[in-house]
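# nightly structure sweep
# worker-07 picked up a monomer target from the shared queue
# config: single-sequence mode, recycle default, output format = structure tokens
# input follows
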Amino acid sequence: MQAVNVTRGRALAEDVEVAGSIWARFMGLMGRGSLPAGRGLWLPGDNGIHMFFMRFAIDAVFLGKPDAAASGARTVVAAKRQLRPWVGMVPLVKAANGVLELPAGTIEATGTEVGDVVQLT
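# output follows
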């Protein structure tokens, strides 16, 4: 899967892994050594993440529910930059219906902001 910030015309990730099970969402990126550029992890239906047992910093883009009129595009409801490993729980984002975990610096590099529209395909 790919994630594109339609508002900015920028790719957030060309290769997005989907954490489709409860276990996969809980594990997230724990135990991995890094998240290479161009990669991401999609946590569908989630509105919060943790950084326990993480070895590296990440960016997290919290997305709202898909807009049926816009082919499933989702609005960015929060963008958390440079989340440090081992800092614990990231505050819940009530309006979120999924989290896209990305390499640290992706939000800054793509200019992604709250209100932007992201398409997952």
